[in-house]
Amino acid sequence: MNDLLVSFDGITVRYLDKLIFENLDFRIEKGHNWAITGPSGSGKTALLETIAGSFNIVNGEASYPFFDQLVKKNRITDPLIRWRQFIALISSRHNFRTLSNTTEIYYQQRFNAADVENLPSVKDYLLSQQALFPSPVWNYQYTIERLRLIPLQDKQLIMLSNGETKRLLIAAALLRNPVLLLLDNPLSGLDVEARKDFNTLLEEIIDSGIQVVMTTSPTEIPDAITHIAMLENGKITRQLPKSSFAAEEVPAVASPDIDTRELERLLAINAFGNYNTMIEMKEVSITYGSKVVLDNINWKVEQGERWALLGHNGAGKSTLLSLINADNPQAYANHIVLFDVQKGHGASIWDIKKKIGFVSPELFQYFPTDSSCLQVVESGFHETLGFLRFQSPESTNLARRWMQLLEIEQFGSKTFRHVSASIQRLCLLARALVKNPPLLILDEPVQGLDSHQQEHFKAVVDLICQKGNTTLIYVSHYQHEIPQCVTHTLRLERGRVV
After folding, report:
1. Rounded to two decimals, what is the model's pTM?
2. pLDDT tens column, 7-57
3. Which of 208, 119, 123, 110 lies closest to 172, judged by CA?
4. Cα–Cα dist 61/479, whole Å
5. What is the pLDDT of residue 390?
6. Fewest CB within 10 angstroms: 69, 163, 178, 224, which?
């Protein structure tokens, strides 16, 4: 019994009005560090949420023997101290708050230096993390050194890149010195070096006495993981030691089945015209205080070209894209031509945005979640973050057709916040495609999708480019995620073109 940390015996789990698990058995023992794998919607994230105590267990028996041991060892008498305080969950969405303790943080804030005064810095956020029993290993100084956060301490949270945010959230969790660390897809969005470092970091975390359960792709299981649970349709189909897990356990991905004729019909609606120059940047530089984010960028994109934008976490990719997508006010201080018009010479923000289909990890983080999935897709017609205006029957029908093409039509009436993260991401991808824009900017578009969803979306992008003259800018840290249609590459390193 001393080796048992968490035990679920025949549990039934509900969230809102939905049955999540029924008659589920799962145990976490000391020395067993788990990877949970399975297709989208199989219940991977829900299992982490259940372990963390976020969902209601309405039947069966759930016990947390590790807490009884903690109480006895540390002579805990305070009835307000509960087992949940010793479990840290890092989910796919963070919940950053302002210094006024509100959640009023919005996407464009990250590009407006004057609009972040009410947002905590990295240092503020980390110092707010409290541990009931401080770790002998993960003290503040060692943690920020190990997670490479020292240069970022004075940076506001919203200004961090996707990879930097992941490092911050892990640091914050370690400072709380949990018994159990739960990680939801921690490798997604990390560059090659960061993924290697995560492997080493995970070993250090486990060696320090913290147990780990993480969701991940079956092809990206870190060395420190000892056991694997495979989920499908809310059921654990297999539990086995990692030493017994082989590549053949991973089912092959079937070739995508795209309705090509329907895609052609959709691309014929709202057909766009021709442009001489889609994007041209001359000696573009962006600074925040003394920090140079982009340094003397020269780049020209002609209509119909398909580009991969590459670079390490924090290289400046998101800032570069914000100049094109009319989110960054510093664009007007630089020589930038978009759709044949120089910035500041007549075209409004909305003139630019209506020609661009855009998605990014940051948009996913800050997108409002109270609309239905169909309304989220429809918002792409008006470039709004959320559903703000009445739609015509024609636009509603178009949105449904794009959702069907991306295999998510059955979620149309569901509230955005109540579907899985992968379905949310696919809704935002449909939102980017729905108006058939001349320029697609897809920043890590298949992050968090399972293998089938990734291959299906890549096939849709390839067909869009094959059937028309769409210009594409595609960001990824994984070579296998880049569509075949990509023929040009721009690589950034520390804000410079290399």
Report:
1. 0.89
2. 999 999 998 888 999 999 999 999 999 999 999 989 999 999 999 999 989
3. 123
4. 45
5. 67
6. 69
34-37 and 227-232 strand pairing: parallel
| Poorest-pLDDT segment among 75-79, 262-266, 396-400, 478-482 | 75-79
Distance CA 330, CA 288 (A): 10
Dig out the tokens for 380 from the structure: 């792409």
| Mean pLDDT for the stretch of residues 198-215 | 96
Distance CA 416, CA 338 (A): 32
Burial (CB count <10 Å: 0-12, 13-18, 19+), residue 39: middle
Distances (CA, A) of 370 to 85, 108, 378, 424: 28, 19, 14, 12
Q: What is the 3-state secondary structure (H, E, C) of the chain?
A: CCCEEEEEEEEEEEECCEEEEEEEEEEEECCCCEEEECCCCCCHHHHHHHHHCCCEEEEEEEECHHHHHHHHHHCCCCCCCCHHHHEEEECCCCCCCCCCCCCCCCHHHHHCHHHCCCCCEHHHHHHCCCCCCCCCCCCHHHHHHHCCCHHHCCCEHHHCCHHHHHHHHHHHHHHCCCCEEEEECCCCCCCHHHHHHHHHHHHHHHHCCCEEEEECCCCCCCCCCCEEEEEECCEEEEEEEHHHCCHHHCCCCCCCCCCHHHHHHHHHCCCCCCCCCCEEEEEEEEEECCEEEEEEEEEEECCCCEEEEEECCCCCHHHHHHHHCCCCHHHHHCEEEECCEECCCCCCHHHHHCCEEEECHHHHHHCCCCCEHHHHHHHHHCCCCCCCCCCCHHHHHHHHHHHHHCCCHHHCCCEHHHCCHHHHHHHHHHHHHCCCCCEEEEECCCCCCCHHHHHHHHHHHHHHHHHCCCEEEEECCCHHHCCCCCCEEEEEECCEEC
Which has more pLDDT, 246 or 113?
Answer: 246
Instruction: Give start-end residues of each CATH 3.40.50.300 domain in the chain.
Output: 4-249, 260-497
Residue range 4-249 forms a domain whose CATH class is: alpha beta
